[in-house]
Amino acid sequence: TRDLVVAQIGKYTNWKYPGLEIGPGNGEWTEHLVAYEPLYLVATHEHFLTETKTKFNGHFQNKIRSYLTTGTDLSMLPQNQLGFVFSWNVFNYLTLDLIEQYLESIYKVLRPGGVAMFSYNNAERPLCARYVDTGYMSYAPKSKLLEIVAKYEFEVISLQDLEEYISWIEI
Questions:
Q1: pLDDT tens per residue, range 63-97
Q2: 66 has which bridge partners?
Q3: Residues 42 and 22 sit within 8 Å (Cβ to Cβ)
Q4: pLDDT, tens digit, for every residue of 124-151?
Q5: What is the distance between the alpha carbons of residues 146 and 52, in angstroms, rounded to a whole number?
Q6: Pick from 48, 13, 5: which is nearest to 33 by CA?
Q7: Contact status, residue 132 vs residue 121, Cβ threshold 8 Å
Q8: Which SS3 state, helix, strand or coil, does residue 110 take?
Q9: Separation of alpha carbons 55 and 152, rounded Å
Q10: Residue 84: enclosing H or E segment and its boundaries?
Q11: Cα(19)–Cα(13) distance, rounded to whole angstroms?
């Protein structure tokens, strides 16, 4: 699965445009986004931004623009400019309302032809529904997510359901 996600990221990598990673965590995926100039990182905890940046040398650190956020607002980023927005294992824990707020913000920062790719908890799948029942992840069934995507007139490039619990969308 990891190799497939990395390959998908590679399809959208383009040094000509800035990119964004929402919720970089420990920087596991950031290394695959290094071509973006600059690369914006947005997180809810300073620890994640610091930990991610320290994984890279000074030259690349100079290309990173990091922002601490308390919600889904991306207005601090350049509007209508980003070529790629990536988020993994973040939307899985957000309510549908918060996912919608993020998609509205993503719509504003993506350039025409830009792509967003993120994982989510497709609660239409048995194990994912169990995650909702136990309070581990949020309720975000594919059908409801597609309604939100359609509301903002995103084009669905790809929908993936792998293994028992991994789902993502590219828009």
A1: 899 999 988 999 999 999 999 999 999 999 999 99
A2: 41
A3: yes
A4: 999 999 999 999 999 999 999 999 999 9
A5: 31
A6: 13
A7: yes
A8: strand
A9: 35
A10: strand 82-87
A11: 9
What is d(CA 111, CA 102) in angstroms, rounded to the nearest whole number? Answer: 16
In DSSP terms, 119 is beta-bridged to: 168
d(CA 23, CA 44): 7
CA pair distance 56, 138, nearest whole angstrom: 32
What is the side-by-side order of every strand in the sheet holding 158-162? 64-68, 39-43, 19-22, 82-87, 110-120, 166-170, 158-162
What Rg, from alpha-carbon coordinates, does the chain have? 15
Structural tokens at position 157: 């490039």
DSSP 159: E
At 47, give phi and psi (nearest 5°): -55, -45
